[in-house]
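hey m, so remember when u said the tokens were messed up on ur end? i reran from scratch. heres the input so u can diff it against urs
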Amino acid sequence: MARQRNLFGWKRPYRAPRILAHLTDCGDHGSVYQPGMRMVALFTCPRCQWESRWIDMPSVTACRKGIACEPCNAERAKARNSVARPHTPQRVSSGRAEKRQNGIASQSEP
């Protein structure tokens, strides 16, 4: 069966994708870790060459997922917030609101 198109003209808003720093080095330094953490990892961003400090991670899988690049994502958030948004005009009262009392239209109204 074919996939249905957008039925009501509404599209789910998606979050902008994050820029991730990739794993550079990962290992066990043989010291005492915080609870739940078993290794340390070092990350580098391929876009801006940012390098993280050694970060405690729970597993190799978590390391391979990467972490958000702080400078790149801060730069994108700043750019996103500075974009001018279109002005939406306020609804102007037509004068009928004053004629209505308690949500019931008066008898003199057409």
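this time it looks ok to me. Residues 27 and 92 are 64 Å apart (CA to CA). if urs says something different then somethings off w ur setup not the seq
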